[in-house]
Specification:
single chain, 239 residues, alpha/beta, 6-stranded parallel beta sheet, binds 3-methylbut-3-enyl trihydrogen diphosphate, binds magnesium ion, transferase, UPP_synth-like_CS, UPP_synth-like_sf, metal-binding, magnesium ion binding
Length: 239
């Protein structure tokens, strides 16, 4: 795969549409999640290949706890199987695995597994793969605020940069590109603080159909954007 030009350093993906994908095929929703997990593997591999430094996958939101218990436990089970099976692949590919979100709400076995995976990949040097698990942006911001307040730091003098170190994403770059599949055009509580200047890319493709060529289209679309960060265009005549 040849991809030249400006590669986004950090890409966030809202992997949506698994349920509809299954429904369209007359299958139970869990089959959509299974197909979605396979696609996630492909996109992780592709992202590492093209030189993305950090990939954040929105895997389970705090709001997703409201789903029927059978679907939640199926998702947890899938995650467990994935992590057990893929750990050696992550290590082989030199990937650093990180989890963000309210991890204490996860079942004990999953919590232990994600933390063990973080430890086992901590000294890797390749792409960072962040899994947003039991995650919501508002909860993350509120937790960060509480941490800052209880750490005894000078709240009056707190800068944006210093505050961001209290977030789950401390030390990670802000996302350059956020992709959402399945035609929904919203953030659904994903990386609210960090997405301030992210480029947003929406596609109608359902997540289980989002393959390498779809990811390539998203990156190429990003490459055509002009990021101004509130300043004026470098292409415009500044006089
Ligand atoms: C995304 O697919 C996966 C999770 C939110 C866990 P959905 O399960 O939301 O699929 P749709 O939106 O119902 O099609
Ligand atoms: C967002 O998808 C969360 C994940 C992809 C993990 P949802 O399907 O939960 O979002 P809404 O309910 O359509 O906003
Ligand atoms: Mg959805």
């Amino acid at each position: 795969m040849i991809l030249s030009g400006n590669i986004p350093s950090h890409v966030g993906v809202i992997m949506d549409g698994n349920g509809r994908w299954a429904q369209l095929r007359g299958l139970p929703r869990v089959e959509g999640h299974r197909a979605g997990a396979e696609r996630a593997k492909e996109i992780i591999e592709f992202s590492a290949e093209v030189g993305i430094k950090c990939l954040t996958l929105y895997t389970f939101s705090t709001e997703n706890w409201q789903r029927p218990p059978s679907e939640v436990s199926m998702l947890m089970r899938l995650l467990e199987v994935y992590l057990r099976k893929e750990l050696s692949v992550l290590v082989d590919r030199d990937i650093v695995f990180k989890v963000i979100g309210e991890t204490w709400r996860l079942p004990e076995n999953i919590r232990a597994l994600v933390h063990a995976t973080e430890e086992k990949t901590a000294s890797n040097k390749g792409m960072t793969l962040v899994t947003a698990l039991s995650y919501s942006g508002r909860s993350e911001i509120l937790r960060a605020l509480k941490r800052a307040a209880t750490s005894g730091c000078d709240l009056e003098g707190l800068t944006e940069e210093a505050f961001s170190q209290y977030l789950d994403t401390a030390d990670l770059p802000s996302p350059d590109l956020i992709i959402r599949t399945s035609g929904e055009r919203r953030l659904s509580n994903f990386l609210l603080w960090q997405s301030a200047y992210a480029e947003l890319y929406f596609t109608d493709t359902l997540w289980p159909d989002f393959d390498r060529s779809e990811m390539l289209l998203a990156i190429q679309d990003f490459q055509g954007r002009e990021r101004r960060f509130g300043a004026i265009s470098v292409r415009s005549n500044a006089s």
